[in-house]
Amino acid sequence: MAVVFAVTFGLLAVAGMLVLVRLLRGKSTLDRIVSVDVFVTLIVAAACVGMGYLRDGSNLALLLTFALLAFIGSVSATRLVERKEPYR
């Protein structure tokens, strides 16, 4: 079972690196906002996998709150950018 967790952490790390590349090379502000949202989602997923590995679910409420705040922040930033930038 430890192999599954190691592979999962490895895949999440690769996905995180690809998202960071997209964040740095994003063509528009919306690309960067989406990449930050995906990066936060990957962090929450890695924390959930870590909780599964340790068999400790005490931080679940904290992770759900963090994910909800990240989602609300992404939606708010997207609406703000949508008003300021014209459609392409």
TrEMBL record:
Keywords: Cell membrane, Membrane, Transmembrane, Transmembrane helix, Transport. The chain crosses the membrane at residues 6-24, 36-54, 60-81. Belongs to the CPA3 antiporters (TC 2.A.63) subunit F family. Its main location: membrane. The keyword Transport applies. This is Sodium:proton antiporter. InterPro entries: MrpF/PhaF-like. It is found in: Cell membrane. Pfam families: MrpF_PhaF. It is a multi-pass membrane protein. It comes from the Bacteria. Coiled coil: none annotated. The lineage of its organism: Bacteria, Bacillati, Actinomycetota, Actinomycetes, Pseudonocardiales.
